[in-house]
Design brief:
This protein has about 140 residues and is mainly alpha-helical. Helices cover about 30% and strands about 0% of the residues.
Length: about 140
Amino acid sequence: MFFERIELVEKLAAIVPPPRIHMVRYHGVLAPRAACRRAIVPAMPPASEKANRGAHAPDDPCAHAPKRWTAWATLMQRVFAVDVLECPRCGGNMKILATIHPPEATTAILESLGLSPRAPPLASADARYSPSIDPA
C-alpha cells in the first residue's frame, strides 16, 4: 500500500487512542475488584514491599499501596535502559541539586554562562535527509 503523506497521517491519527484511556481491561478474576483476585495474582516480592513502605509503619494498612507517581529517573531507566543519574566520567551516582521553574531564573543562569536563553529554531517538517549527516 502506498499513501500520500497526508493520507498516512490521517490513517495513523485514526488509530491513536484518546489521552487517559485504558487500553487493557481485565474481567473475571483479574478484574481490579474481583473477590478472588488475591488468590490468582502473585504477591509483591519482598524487596518491592520494603521500597513501597517508606515511612509507613509495618502494620499500616496503606503500607502496600502503590505510589501515585514515579521518579523521572526511574521512568527513563525503564524506557531507555539508561541510568540518567550515573556520572558519565566516573560512573558514580549524581544528585539533583535543584530544579529551576521560573523562566526568569532560567534565563539569568543561561545568560551568566554565556548561553542563549532561546531554544534553537525548529527544522521544517518537510526537511529532507542530508547524506552529509551521519545518523549513527
